[in-house]
Amino acid sequence: MDLLLTTAAKFADDPFAARETLANQTVAIYMTKPSTRTRLASETAVAHLGGTPVFLRGDDLQLGRGETISDTAKIISGFASALIVRTFAQSDVDELGAASTIPVINALTDDDHPTQLLADWITIREKFGTDISGRKFTYIGDGNNMAHAWLIMGAILGAHVVAATPSGKWAPDASAIATAMKIAKSTGAKIEVVHDARAGAENSSVLYTDVWMSMGDPESERAEKLKALSPFAVTPELMKLTAPDSIFMHCLPAHRGEEVSAEVIDGPASLIWREAYHRRTTIQAILYHLVRGDLQGSALLG
To answer: Which entry of 160, 278, 279, 280 is annotated as an active-site residue?
Structure first.
């Protein structure tokens, strides 16, 4: 991760530093979920490396008419140098990765959002530096794919990370918590899952949240879910409990007045626009190191 974050920082300063890396090559970008930041970041990252992005919607491919994921992966591998995937099921990314002969990058599934977390952590490093000892980093809200990614990435980086969520059906999955705990044993990270917003916010250097109703969430659960999550809204009062130099972060899109108040997200502690900018720098770093052979494996970060 240090390699990717260091390279992303270089691309933030000079986006065209490696403009020949993907010269005369294409990168397929397959998305079955709507996207603003991931699509813009992916296409721009490919272009800045000298390549041509080929954007594919779910209904652009023959998958909808019964062609297998495995066959699709083999076809894409014959035309592109890498594949970026944003979809629902993690198993689809895993199958694409297993059948492809090119790198496959997980740009979001219902289980995880690893490329977002790279953008988050380079933003955190810009603010606090690489020495994060004594600092606490808190995700607050729905125990969704972002909560899972937050715990796991924090564990990889040896951080003290907290997920403050409701208990029960909107808590993080036990399997994601177990994965983070296992990683933490080797990195020295501290992993906590709490069910009290104030406890999560207290003395934290970062308060991070996400929308409460994600793509695919059943509308029939909206009222119940919003009631359960209402105590976890990031308000000015909650920010007052954080460390004196704390920041607010959000993966966007945001619903002001729901998971975060306008005073916080549009206030001086908010780094959401720099965070969004780094979606490009980090995806660019991933592609750069993958096509050079510096990183190995399919379904990267999946």
So the answer is: 279
Whether 251 sits among the annotated catalytic residues: the reply is yes
Tokens found for residue 149: 């990614």
Question: What does the buried/exposed string (b/e) look like for 136-165 if buried means 16 or more CB atoms within 10 Å of the residue's CB?
Answer: bbbbbbbbbbbbbbbbbbbbbbbbbbbbbb
Is the pLDDT confidence value at 298 over 70? no
Whether this prediction's pTM lies above 0.90 is answered by: yes
Letter for the amino acid at 37? R
Q: Which of 210, 250, 278, 284 is catalytic?
A: 210
pLDDT tens string 126-167: 999 999 999 999 999 999 999 999 999 999 999 999 999 999
Kindly list the distances between the CA atom of residue 39 and the CA atoms of 20, 51, 145, in Å, as whole numbers in the listed order: 21, 15, 18
Active-site residue 90, yes or no? no
The predicted structure's pLDDT at residue 285: 97
Alpha carbon 178 to its chain centroid, in Å, reads: 19
- Domains annotated for the chain, with CATH where assigned, are 2-112+278-291 (3.40.50.1370), 116-275 (3.40.50.1370)
Catalytic, 39? Answer no
In the set 94, 116, 135, 280, the catalytic residue is 116
**Which position among 37, 48, 86, 278 bears the catalytic label?**
86
Q: Based on the residue annotation, tell me whether 296 is a catalytic residue of this protein.
A: no
Q: Could you tell me the pLDDT band of residue 46, with boundaries at 50, 70 and 90?
A: very high
User: Residue 296's pLDDT band (boundaries 50, 70, 90)?
Assistant: low
Active-site residue identified among 37, 113, 125, 250: 113
The whole-angstrom separation of Cα 151 and Cα 201 is: 16
User: 135, 142, 250, 251: which is the annotated catalytic residue?
Assistant: 251
For residue 60, pLDDT over 80 is answered with yes
Whether 279 is a known active-site residue: answer yes
Q: Which of 162, 163, 216, 157 is nearest to 189 (CA)?
A: 157
